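Prompt: I keep going back and forth on a fold encoding question. Comparing notes only helps if you start from a blank page. Show me how you would write down a chain together with its backbone fold. Please set it down just below, with no commentary around it:
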Amino acid sequence: MKNVAVVGLGNMGMGMANNLLAAGFEVTGFDLRPERGQMLAEQGGTAAASLMDLADADVALVMVMSGAQVMDVVAGAGGLLRCLRDGATIIVSATIQPSEMRAVEDALSGSGLHLIDCPVSGGQFGAEAGTLTMMVAAKRAVFDENQDVLNAVGEKIFHVGEAIGMGQTVKAALQALIGVSFVGIFESLALGAAAGVNGETLFKVFSSTHVADTLFFKNCAERIMQREFEDTGSHISTMVKDIGISMALARENGMPLFATSAAYELFQAGISRFPEGDNWAIVKLLEEFSGTEVQW
């Protein structure tokens, strides 16, 4: 069984690490916060004190926040480029710009290391349940060789091409859809509440339609109506970052994104008003205009 390293033990990385352990892999994790490594050790994994402690890994899964962090983990001083053996594979599951992903590929050129561009969708719940959707760009042989690792953390795995950066490109397009969908939910619920409709009625009617009879809508609406706006594993900052990547990709391709632009501005306003909030906290911003709340 392969030795798998997980770099970045936040909500997503920890969920993925636990599923790798459940699948029988030897898992070593590194995070800048020692307590996160201790949490992994309590689950049966091994906590690394530095990236150099990952030298025995066959596969290193990188789940950090930004392109700069990915590059530092991969090619920085003491990074994976300098400690992994020839033939090892780096899987970048962070959501970053396609150009940043291609820069990582350039940094690994001639190193003997393999690279998989593999952003994911499904959030903390998907990471913990092992049901993530994975958009994988890699050479076919590398993709096939790492099916065991990918299947341990994901449920819907798509090989979207061999060109590194294509996985991030698909994710950027998907995030435009997700951002606009969030805003549609927020505005429709806030509108109904402002007009005097109780939340239970809105929930029952909306979720009976083919548009909103989804786990996405139901989870979002339930968080709002239960007034759970922090520490649910879906922080506004992540969505701001991800939709920003969508907007950057649109500019690169001369593509106007009217609805996505509006969604981006609403998320920006949301994080300014509620800097510690999760995505659904944005509905509170809309509620302030009418002085009402979306509740059961």
